[in-house]
Amino acid sequence: MITRRAALMAGAALATTQFVASSAVAEEVMDTSAAKPVDLSALPVRSHRLVAPPFVHEHEQVATTGPTLVKFEMKIIEKEVQVADGAYLQAMTFNGSMPGPLMVVHEGDYVELTMFNPPENLMQHNIDFHAATGALGGGSLTLVNPGEKVVLRFKATRPGTFVYHCAPGGPMIPWHVVSGMSGAIMVLPRDGLKDHMGKPVSYDRVYYIGENDFYIPKDEDGNYKRYEDAGDSYPETLEVMNRLIPTHVTFNGKVGALTGENALTAEQGENVLFVHSQANRDSRPHLIGGHGDLVWEAGKFNNIPDRDLETWFIRGGSAGAALYRFLQPGVYAYVNHNLIEAVNLGATAHVVVGGDWNNDLMEQVMAPTEYNAAYEGKTALP
Ligand SMILES: [Cu+2]
Fold first, then answer.
1. pLDDT for residue 6 is more than 50
2. CA-to-CA distance for 348 and 286, rounded, in angstroms?
3. Cβ atoms of 156 and 68 closer than 8 Å
4. What gap in Å lies between CA 177 and CA 183, rounded to an integer?
5. How many domains does the structure of the chain reveal?
6. Strand, helix or coil at 296?
7. Cα 180 to ligand 1 centre (Å)
8. In Å, what is the CA distance from 284 to each residue of 210, 230, 259, 278?
9. Which end of the chain, N or C, is surrounded by fewer C-beta atoms within 10 Å?
């Protein structure tokens, strides 16, 4: 049965802390009190401490047990984050990072999340798992006020990479998402990943790249504005949001979060799995100088992976997975191949790959050399 918890968002209260409790707009809260209890006491139990992206907590690729109750904890943290030079965001985060941590389980496992909304936060939050079934992906069973915690359990029935995000109702939904509240879960098949022929494949490393689009208001002089708290930032941020042109498009919450000293690393010959999520907007990952050997573009492992892709498409509100074996050493750029977003707005990561150069795959036959234009170069044109 569905009951309605009506709540109005009072515009006047927006810039104050009072809109905390009234920010949800007529969200539906499932009443599940009459449902039959399930007994999961026979299941093995495992707890994982989540880690900040691009890294991923330790996990098995092929499950060595039957279905397991897998426990995670997450704390929602509202805080100001510098997302680029001179640009500050009143961020809302799952576990302090943008994106939130990647959770990894196996098909048939039960995911049990304890989520804390600490008392110092201003807002209500919840979590909608695209991997879950019913109750708005868990959103209507997890709405927590500051100072509250909640425990949600769902069965991971479909293998793949799936977005999770905050969805506290009405216009709070897009705002919380573009303030940083999204992440992903990877539900592996119990017997691991398979290639296009159905043969088992594994990865040596996995990196989780969460792409965010940010909408930070500017003042009359064109400088980014800074705000006291998220509520203070909302009205002007909404105006920028509704124009649909992001001021920043970042990988892992910040321009440069995955470049330079923070670059991803790999070794020649290693299979690297890139999980890429975008909770709000389309993206098109491309590994410059490399490929996607096996790409689950929509992220769902029951589908046969595409092969040899140059660029793949991540639909807004989804997470995809691409497996690539690095064949050459060097620095690779992993970008959103809308190159304006990659270069000017921030959506670039680097992968530094160690190993020995293979001249068979590519060789600079002659280094740049001056030539005599009076004699040479005439045969190039038709
Ligand atoms: Cu939220």
1. no
2. 10
3. no
4. 10
5. 1
6. strand
7. 9
8. 13, 30, 18, 10
9. C
| C-alpha 221 – ligand 1 centre gap (Å) | 31
How far apart are the CA of 125 and the centre of ligand 1, in A?
A: 4
Active site residues: 125, 128, 130, 165-166, 176, 181, 286, 310-311, 337
Phi and psi (nearest 5°) for 178? -80, 0
Would residue 59 count as lying in a domain?
Answer: no
3-state secondary structure of 207: strand
Collapsed DSSP state (helix, strand, coil) of residue 347? coil
Nearest-angstrom CA–CA distance, 24 and 176? 12
**Structural domain of 301:** 208-236+245-354
In angstroms, the CA 339 to CA 253 distance is 18
- 108 pLDDT higher than 50: yes
- Provide the CATH number for the domain around residue 303: 2.60.40.420
Separation of alpha carbons 143 and 138, rounded Å: 9
Dump pLDDT digits (tens) for 46-61. Answer: 999 999 999 999 999 9
**Within 10 Å of residue 333's Cβ, how many Cβ atoms?**
17
**What is the per-residue pLDDT for 30?**
80
